[in-house]
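Structure tokens please, single chain.
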Amino acid sequence: MSKPLPSALLLTIGMSFAVSAAAQNPQAVHCLACDKGPLTGRYWKSELGAICEDCHKLERRCWICRHPAAKDYIKTPDGRYICRREAKNAIISQQAVHQTFQRTRNAVKRMTRNYMALKSPKINVEVFSQPVWDPDGTKSALHRQGLATTRQVGGRFHHNVMLISGLVNTNLIGVSAHEFTHLWINENRGDHKIDPQTNEAICEMVAYKLAETYRHHNYMKVIRENTYTQGRANELLPLVNRYGLKSLLRWVLEGTGPTPSARDLARLRSSRPAATAASPTMPATKSSPLYNSRPRAKATPPADLELKGVLGAPGKYTALISGVMFQEGDTRTVKLQGKSIRARCEKITRTTATLKLEGSKEPLELRLN
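Here you go.
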């Protein structure tokens, strides 16, 4: 179950005090909800701005930020109001929610270098409105944003995710990452009995680290300050920052206790993964600061690229590579499989030369025979 609240919900927006316009510059004070102004007499103030007394009395409130929905607001088919400020970023259509979830799923996989790829990748995503989600209005807002379930039939998993429409983009990304992590945990924890709050906190850590890569600082703050996991997320965050997200994910697969300790994550960070068929593979792709993996194996140079010799002194080496002379920083043309290709020499040592071939993502290290 997902939790993070839109940041505006965390504001003190009850407008619990009134301000006298005479004490301020009335020309600069306008109502953020209806644009009325300059305001005179008494008006109400939130961290987002001033609100006139008429708007303050409105029962029509934004579902996202709880400010008055007074002008140019959106009303969803299920009866929720979204104020004009939030409407700019709110994702309402089913197609847009689906697309955001799929993009988030792919981003989580990239962030973890495919470690969190699902064994059963098909996910049924449904979009719900609030009355369907919470018809009697008894659930707190913390539990109205998403739900993930997995049913195992034989060796296959059937995944379902439910997301509510109307979230702003940054929050929908966070909720999607959270729910996707639930599915991954469902596939991989096996008989590992994880404390429910720890389970939610692990999902929060993946959402937090993804928000960190996107620089969604407000959403990161929401995760740090909310009480959804009863403080467990704030206990895990310094451990993840120190030992890496990979260690926490490995704990799901290899741990035994209900919640991880610093000792558990330190051990998992320094040890090799258990060799089990159920363990996710870890392909040799570009390193990520979120994913403290072992160094990848270097690519094997093509047979027709050979370091013939290194001349000169340290800092002024010249490398002879397949008949072409290189110094560090030089770009030359070399023959590769009968074709001419540009290559840049990035580094030369007494026994090696590193080339970056045009069109190649990874450099090649050539060694003297």
